[in-house]
Amino acid sequence: MLYTTRLNKMKCRYCGDSLRTINQKLFSTTGEQCLGNPAGIHVGVTDGECCVYCGDKTHCQNRKLITHLGDSCRNSPTRMHCLQ
User: What is the pTM of this model?
Assistant: First the structure.
C-alpha cells in the first residue's frame, strides 16, 4: 500500500492543532480523531486552495473542485471537496 505524507500549513478548526495529510486524511499530533469536534474528525481552517476535509490542493474544472485524485472527497459529508 502506498502512503503519501504531506505537511500542510493548515490548522484544525476545532482543536487548533497543526495538520498533515496522509492518504487523503487529516492527522495531528494526537492522530486522526479530533477531540474538539463532535463528529470526531479534523476540519482544516480554509486557506483558499486546499480542501478543508482532505487537505489536497484543488482547482476548478467544469464548475467542480478537482484534486489530483478526482472530484470526490472521502472525508466530506457531501462527498465533494470544499474550500470553507
Answer: 0.71
